[in-house]
Design a protein that fits this description.
The protein is α+β, with helices and mostly antiparallel strands. The strands form 6 sheets. A 6-stranded mixed β-sheet has the order 4-3-2-1-5-6, sandwiched between helices. A 4-stranded mixed β-sheet has the order 8-9-12-20, with helices on both faces. Strands 7-10-11 form a 3-stranded antiparallel β-sheet. Helix 5 links the parallel strand 5 and strand 6. The termini are far apart.
């Protein structure tokens, strides 16, 4: 499977007239090689593929990576210039979105006879379409996260802090088999739910609160991401109204999902519906995003995206309304794109009531 992925990257060499491509993104390196570490560089040439890492990971890399040449980079020795010279590489592309300017300057200094050219999302584009084994791992990540949420849901009570609840959820996800949370778990309560990406605080949950809980698990590198809104008691009239609007907007978007539909059309469906109901000023983020090895991947489901939805993309749909000093509601599901009707992968009800 990884050999097929590498061949797709090699096709880019011909497309852009390159002799090689340097990858720094940990997710893209893992996608192509199976290597997971905080320090790594992948060089794809028309022939061989090289993984370069340091002493901390060299033994692990040699044991876990197959079909690639694994080399060690030390304080005094960098194998990259030697490879470039021995293979006669004259034009190399690199992932500009994942490479710091300092590293770019270092390459320019060391590879003086080689032209180094920026690439953008070309490798990320390959990852948009999920293979069956990737979908299976995403499904597993979802099941882990949802089972953990069910266990923690029973612990929601007056007096517990947002931070305590987030820690409980993180612990349960890992206890259930997650490598780690997909991202920093969001727990917001009361008026803090008006912050779309609130970090958990010491605020204690009170009866009558609305809670937004945005969470996900990582399993074998693959992520889940969903959001539930919990009403701890009877919601106010405004919150009840926006809950219904957000729910209907989400369902309208999901109904429209299928291969061949422009991503921006899905965003327009949600944005138009919320605006027509009078809350357009309170929905400022995109409607969703792709998800896989990263919690935010292509395609972006927003009004700027030019992507067309394709079969076997996995995306989120997550409309929300956030009213300052009042509170907010966000409901989020993960969906697998199909030729016909979409498959909703997440199973939890997104608007929950604790009485």
């Amino acid at each position: 499977m990884k050999a097929q992925r590498i061949e797709k990257v090699k096709d880019l060499l011909s497309k852009y007239g390159l002799d090689g491509i340097l990858l720094k993104s940990p997710e893209n390196i893992f996608y192509l090689s199976g290597f997971r570490g905080s320090e790594g560089l992948l060089l794809v040439t028309r022939g061989d593929v090289f993984l370069i890492t340091d002493f901390r990971y060299i033994t692990y890399a040699k044991d876990s990576v197959q079909g690639l040449i694994v080399l060690e980079k030390g304080r005094e020795k960098d194998p990259l210039p030697e490879i470039v010279n021995d293979y006669g590489l004259k034009r190399i592309g690199f992932e500009s979105n994942y490479t710091s300017y300092a590293i770019y300057e270092e390459w320019k200094k060391k590879l003086k006879e080689c032209e180094i050219l920026p690439l953008k999302n070309e490798i990320d584009d390959i990852r948009k379409i999920k293979e069956p084994e990737e979908i299976d791992k995403i499904r597993k990540a979802i099941r882990i996260a949802e089972e953990a949420f069910i266990r923690v849901y029973e612990k929601i009570k007056a007096g517990i802090t947002e931070k305590e609840l987030a820690c409980e959820l993180d612990f349960e996800m890992q206890r259930m088999g997650a490598e780690r949370p997909s991202f920093e778990t969001i727990v917001a309560s009361g008026e803090r739910t008006a912050y779309p990406h609130a970090r958990p605080s010491e605020r204690r949950i009170r009866e009558g609160d609305v809670l937004i809980i945005d969470f996900g698990a990582q399993y074998e590198g693959y992520c889940s991401d969903e959001t539930c809104t919990v009403f701890f008691g009877e919601p106010t009239k405004v919150l009840k109204e926006i809950r219904q609007i957000v729910y209907e907007a989400k369902e309208k978007a999901i109904e429209a999902l299928q291969a061949g539909v422009p991503a921006k059309k899905i965003d327009s469906i949600v944005r138009t519906y919320i605006r027509e109901r009078g809350y357009g000023d309170y929905f400022g983020h995109g409607t969703g995003h792709g998800i896989g090895l990263s919690v935010h991947e292509l395609p972006q489901i927003n009004d700027l995206c030019e992507s067309i939805l394709e079969e076997n993309m996995v995306i989120t749909i997550e409309p929300g309304i956030y009213i300052p000093n009042v509170g907010g509601v966000r409901l989020e599901d993960m969906v697998l794109i199909r030729e016909g009707y979409p498959t909703v992968l997440t199973a939890l009800r997104k608007d929950l009531f604790l009485v």
